[in-house]
């Protein structure tokens, strides 16, 4: 589903990097469940919107950290191999979606 | 945690409205878990970013539908009681956060 | 170009409201010209991006103030006439575009 | 005003690149003036919001093209000199502001 075909070697994440990202995603998962409970309990719309904003902000931060890592590893590798332009084009396409 | 103190009566959601919103939130929860799996499996950063964008877009849609319902019920009620201005101020504050 | 057909009476802006909004828009116009100068002078991309962000933020604020005024006047009038739902639907459509 | 101190050499834009960017910025300047006229003429709020959205979208596109150029020149140069990490950090900071 929307997966990219590419030959770039993925630089494996360190265990610490993985743990940090997974923690953030688990917290986001918990926040999404929290909103489900708010809907079930007929909580005030504005309070629900505040929580949705909090999740969006947390997701953006995960996205930024994935993007920064991607530039420091995959894009940097591609540039060193002289294949920077294509890698940058790919990144720009996803950044455009991301900042919508 | 960021909850609003207010006297507005919350118009209870119908069972159908609840079910629809809960379904969307459960799908979003599943998508967040999907990203966790992608991180664990060291999947390509750009593919992860694409999935994060998809969740953001789904969350925004939930936010819009909560906002529209809020305007049709709570804000409309407040306006009918002559207390529209305060209700609109409250909504604007959350919309500013939301569209960040 | 994208203009809406509608029967809503537009509540005229006071001279003060107009002057305030026009001042903000004139400042934004000046900022856009400032960026043109930066491009002509081959200024550093990141400095240009910082200025673009500043304009976006200023434009958003004009948008929020137009939205709040719209809710306090046009939407409130529509609700008082029992035509709220349509007016809210119209506003939601533009908010979705706006927060893209 | 918010200018960065840096040693990166700015790769000069070609005349064609400049002309293209300047054209887009001039069109945006015209759009901003168009909104001023709409405010003066007491035009419908929603029509004004639609025009503001159009400008935001046009500005974003200028921002993306400046960002892509920045990555293809300045960031790529920095990476080739082994100074990529700092350059990427600088870009991330501005992207975070930009997608707010």
TrEMBL record, chains A, B, C, D:
A Pfam family (short name) is Trns_repr_metal
| Superkingdom | Bacteria
Q: Which residues form a coiled coil?
A: none
Q: Which CDD domains match?
A: BsCsoR-like_DUF156
Query: Which PANTHER family does UniProt cross-reference here?
Result: COPPER-SENSING TRANSCRIPTIONAL REPRESSOR RICR, TRANSCRIPTIONAL REPRESSOR FRMR-RELATED
Q: Supply the name of the protein.
A: Metal-sensing transcriptional repressor
Q: Which organism is it from?
A: Salinicoccus siamensis
